[in-house]
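Budget justification aside, the reviewers requested a transparent look at the raw inputs and outputs of the sequence design task funded under Objective 1. We therefore reproduce one unedited record. The lines immediately below are the structure tokens for a 124-residue chain.
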């Protein structure tokens, strides 16, 4: 019986050493960051415009852009040409000015529509 007890203790010690090695190894693995940057508010996402001629430019845009035809066309073109293999960030392959133009035109349209409604210009 004493032999069995010593054998069990030896196995247990061996397992404990293995477990310690596994834990030590896991602690060395860098943790992937799933944190959202502070400047990305709820209902928004970050997107980078990327091209060979200029530095990437970061935009913070509202989620409703994912329903905008111009924005979706840009995403589709990027997907067709380059795919979406990157992790952690959405990149569109275009000049920053092109993305700014899409975002600005929609903003102007929304502002004009709001202004028209406030001025009763929509009444015939």
């Amino acid at each position: 019986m004493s032999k069995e007890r010593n054998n069990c203790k030896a196995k247990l010690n061996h397992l404990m050493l293995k477990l310690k090695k596994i834990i030590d190894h896991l602690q060395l693995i860098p943790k992937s960051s799933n944190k959202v940057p502070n400047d990305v508010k709820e209902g928004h996402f970050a997107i980078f415009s990327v091209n060979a001629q200029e530095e990437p430019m970061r935009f913070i845009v509202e989620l409703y852009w994912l329903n905008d035809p111009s924005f979706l066309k840009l995403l589709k073109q990027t997907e067709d040409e380059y795919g979406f293999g990157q992790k952690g960030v959405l990149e569109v392959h275009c000049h920053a000015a092109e993305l700014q133009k899409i975002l600005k035109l929609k903003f102007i349209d929304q502002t004009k529509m709001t202004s028209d409604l406030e001025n009763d210009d929509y009444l015939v």
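Helices lie at 2-28, 69-82, 96-118. Confidence is low (pLDDT under 50) at residues 111-124. Computational costs for records of this kind are itemized in the attached budget.
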